[in-house]
């Protein structure tokens, strides 16, 4: 499989089409179509017609609670890894699922490693915007590497039968 | 394939793997083999490979790769010890180094050998997972767990639960900084609970179950801090939920802009104990508690995979032991310093010193490892413990067999009678191995060991803990030493700064700097003068630490600097 081009999106270990447009701080907001706005432009996004899909990009240092009132209107929350070592987005994703009961798409952006893929999924992330230069095969392999995990997660995996172990996949 | 190998009896003292655990480790080894192959082929750069190798305990040191092998809660069995000896002999320079976190380090490893080494470790249910990186590290434990007379709860079952829970934890593998948990089940703290990111002390609950004292935010390094007491009534069933809340708050709010300010101790200081507690309580209150509940059945299931020793000493074991002590003064001295009272009649715990006079603290040769494995099989149910003081323990030894054990240890140069005494020094690897160090710790330890080699002298001086770090990162725990020694660099020369009054135990304290740093050749003499001053001024059975606390630093300062 060729190295992906910018914009490749991974779901369940497979490349999938990406219907979303990600807006920066300045670009004009399109009238229609699914868009991901920066947190600073959330109000603007919320002012769009309610039948247009809206997502928000959450900086890694933002409190999840800032999304509490807007969340029913959001179809997607993007969390980010400015560097792979900055693991705050794991807690943000987990809190979105566990505390705010968010059921929409959580997208990981930035520079996560393929070796973090299973962790991302187990914290509630649904899709990964692959960093430039990623080999999707390596991500796919990481997804099937382990058969069990040693602790429960917000993904609600089936218990394996012993202690806290969970069956993956 | 593993299905065809008959399961051995459950190991005494630690959790026995089942087929699922073994399959998990096999997958992990294959993952790393794949990563190493990609690195050697050049498709992974060193930058990309670094986080992956660190997650398998592989560091690049000053001269070679170092592989740190996890010894969960410091307990291993004879079969595992023999495998470590084999690896040392085959892939390293015929020795290994037991660490203050109850792990083992191989110092001279070739990158291309590491997948095979990890595969050999996996064959005996061992690994190097989370022995480095900003994740929850090996959970350390009381070296006399399950044996000590003063113990209220055997903490190893809970240590194993924490090991499993923290293994490849999806949320907590990329924390702001490394995270160290220690657990004890005795009111006499032998794990330095107050110097850990989280310290847990297990004790019986009023309802007959188990509950925990929780300490947080202790640590050494550049900012030594004694941990604060967070609560004393954590029920067993909430153990994981509460730890999840504690670590989540840290993951969210811990500093990531400066690695020297990134440990949880800095966060706890910044928020204040009450501020941190409020955030943890809020998280704890809003989380899905049912999901993280630790039910008694789970604890029982894990406990059931621990082998237990069949303690059954003859009635006259104690009498035979007394006779041997009276007949052999050298044995008697070793018993006085190197044993610990056992809960069962006729049994005793024996400490094997890895601090021979003039030796390197914590090092053991392959032959010594094999000897200890054989002796563990013969005398101690095949169980061996590693202590945070870098010694080994045989936990359950029959008193009537202790003399024979001691003779065998003596033949292997493993019978130094110096546990808790001045020869029982902790030293970090220092500039002989470590890229971070400012100074060499090992030669100072060797010189001190040689200076105070006499067992009679050591016993006269009594309990005293000397701890040596080769740099400010404090891996040699100098802050917690009764006498701490810190290597510093002064214009390219190695100098050593003394601190006095530290303690890792229930009376935890951080040592205070005594005065200007000393050149290497003056340091050992200065410590000899410190000890002389103590011997002059001590009263009754006072330890060095007690005399220091009673009289203060002035007289010790005079002793060190008057003639310097």
TrEMBL record, chain A:
UniProt cross-references to Pfam families, sorted A to Z: DUF934
Name of the protein in its database record: Uncharacterized protein (DUF934 family)
UniProtKB/TrEMBL annotation, chain B:
SUPFAM superfamilies membership: Nitrite and sulphite reductase 4Fe-4S domain-like (SSF56014), Nitrite/Sulfite reductase N-terminal domain-like (SSF55124)
Keywords: 4Fe-4S, Heme, Iron, Iron-sulfur, Metal-binding, Oxidoreductase
Domain Nitrite/sulphite reductase 4Fe-4S: 132-284, 464-560
One example GO MF annotation: heme binding
Domain of life of the organism encoding this protein: Bacteria
InterPro entries: NIR_SIR_4Fe-4S, NiRdtase/SiRdtase_haem-b_fer, Nit/Sulf_reduc_fer-like_dom_sf, NO2/SO3_Rdtase_4Fe4S_dom, NO2/SO3_Rdtase_4Fe4S_sf
Domain annotation Nitrite/Sulfite reductase ferredoxin-like: ranges: 65-123, 360-412
Protein's name in the database: Nitrite/sulfite reductase
Source species: Gluconacetobacter liquefaciens (Acetobacter liquefaciens)
